[in-house]
Design goal:
mainly alpha, Leucine-rich Repeat Variant, Serine Threonine Protein Phosphatase 5, Tetratricopeptide repeat, globular
């Protein structure tokens, strides 16, 4: 650890006022160094929303190296820290957070956390997914965001679901035009039926976007390839399967059988990590 990073961490630990804590956390977050992650994670549990926002921004900027520590934070009993960690996870878009975001977007009691999760699902790093897992993951996200768009009582969460669905529609346009059609049909309904003017306006914006034939920029050609191992992907698959078993009667809709077949293919693939 560099002397500069150590001094910045020490400054966070010694901050003696709310304003000083925010300032020092911002300075630490600006380094974008992996060594800052444990301290930024710790800040999430402090009773200082401004510092927590700065810590979340820092964790998002650090990205993938911060994900294991964020996922570990989700297992803690401090809900405030957990909610901030979910915001960071949503902002990073790492596939290891997929199942967590699916559950949070559809069931968490905090509207701000559901909103962050819904937006995060639409911004997932799809270019990291192996081909044999991509379809299943995207279908799960489609179902979750459609549910949120239709059922969530809070307009701000439905608004986020529209943002997520717009991003997803671009991603799936070529391989799954029928899914894209479902999204456009949902938008057509919401454009006239949603009770919130803000949501309807966001839907109209999305409709105009598609009418103009715009194409979202997907993965940057300079973005690094997936750093996840075969073990990581197997864990993601297992978590998706467990989620599906909890939601539906086994084999009632055919999904678990499809998951088992994929699990066999993943298990047989040599680990290249």
């Amino acid at each position: 650890m560099s002397d500069n990073l150590s001094s910045l961490i020490h400054a966070v630990e010694q901050a003696d006022s709310a304003g000083q804590l925010i300032k020092t956390v911002r300075e630490l977050a600006a380094t974008r160094l992996e060594g800052a992650v444990p301290t930024l994670i710790e800040v999430l549990s402090f009773n200082n929303p401004g510092a927590a926002v700065a810590a979340v921004d820092g964790l998002i900027a650090i990205g993938e190296p911060a994900v294991p520590a964020i996922l570990e934070q989700l297992d803690q009993h401090n809900y405030t820290a957990r909610s901030w960690a979910i915001r960071a996870l949503a902002g990073i878009g790492d596939p290891r957070g997929l199942v967590t975001l699916l559950g949070v977007a559809t069931a968490d009691f905090s509207l701000s956390v559901r909103r962050a999760a819904a937006r995060g699902l639409g911004a997932m790093k799809w270019h990291w997914f192996p081909e044999n897992l991509l379809e299943i993951a995207q279908e799960e996200v489609l179902e979750a965001l459609m549910f949120v768009a239709e059922q969530d009582e809070e307009w701000i969460v439905r608004y986020a679901a529209v943002v997520g669905l717009q991003a997803l529609a671009d991603t799936i346009a070529t391989p799954h035009p029928e899914w894209r059609s479902q999204i456009l049909h949902q938008f057509a309904q919401m454009a006239t039926q949603d009770e919130s003017w803000a949501v309807r306006a966001r839907v109209w914006m999305a409709q105009q976007y598609f009418e103009e034939g715009k194409v979202v920029q997907l993965a940057d050609s300079h973005d690094k390839p997936s750093p996840l191992s075969d073990t990581d992907w197997q864990t993601i698959l297992d978590n998706l399967y467990d989620r599906k078993e909890q939601e539906r009667n086994v084999l009632a809709e055919g999904d678990p059988r499809r998951y088992r077949d994929l699990a066999v293919s993943v298990a047989q693939k040599p680990d290249e990590s």
